[in-house]
Amino acid sequence: MFINVIVNGEKINIDINPTKRLVDFLRDDLNLTGVKEGCSEGECGACTVILDRKAVASCSVLVGQVNGKEIITIEGLEKDGELDALQRAFIEIGAIQCGFCTPGMILSCKALLMNNPFPTEDEIKRAIEGNLCRCTGYTKIVEAVQSAIEWGHGNDE
Amino acid sequence: MKELRYVGQRIIREDSYDKARGKTIYVGDMKRANMLYAKLVLGQKAHAEIEIDKTEAMLVDGIEAIFTHEDVPKVQYNAFEWHSSIKAPRDEYLLNNKARYVGDRIALVVGKSKKAVEEAIAKLSIAYKEEKPVIGLDEATSLAFSKEISTGDYEKAFENADYIIKDIGTTPKIHHAAIEPHACLAEFDDRGNLLIWAPCQVASQIQIHVSNILNIPLNRVRVVKTVMGGSFGGKSIPILEPIAAFATYRLNRPVLLYMNRTDTILGTVTRNATKITVETAVNKEGKILGRKIEAHVDGGAYNTNAAAVTMALGKKLFRLYDIKDQCYIGKAYYTNTIPGGACRGYGSPQAHAITEVNIDNVAKTLNMDPCEFRLKNLIEDGAKDPTGSTDIGNAKIKECIIKGMEAFNWKEKRKNIRNKNTNRYSYGIGMACGTHGNGYTGAYPDYTSVDLRLFSDGSVLVNMSIHDLGCGTLTIMQQIAAEALDIEIEKVKVTEADTLNTPADSAGTQASRVTYVCGAAVKEAGEKLRQKLIDTFCKLKGINQDDVITSQGYIFNKQSNQKYSYSEIVVEAEKTFQEDMSVFIKYKSPANPASFAACFAEVKVDKYTGLVEVIDFLAVHDIGKSINPMLVEGQIQGGVQFSIGMALTEDIDIDSKGNVKSTNFSKYHILNSTSMPKVRTMTIEANEPYGPYGAKSVGEMATVAPAPAIINAINFALDTNITTYPATPELIINELNKKS
Amino acid sequence: MMNSFIEPKNIEHLCDALNEKDENTYILAGGTDLIIKFAKENISNFKIIDISSFSNFRSIEDLGDAIKIGSCVTMTEIENNKLIKKEIPALATAAYNVGSTQIRNRATIGGNLANAAQCGDTIPVLFAYDADIEILNSLNQVRYEKARDLVTGIGKTTLKKDEVITSILIKKSKYSSGFSKVGSRKSVTISKINCCGKILLDEDNVIRDIEIYMGAVGVKPIKAELIEKEILGKSLEISSYNLEESIKEQIERAIPNRSSKHYKKIAAIGLIKDMLADIRR
Question: What fold is seen in the domain C4-50?
Answer without folding.
Answer: 3.30.43
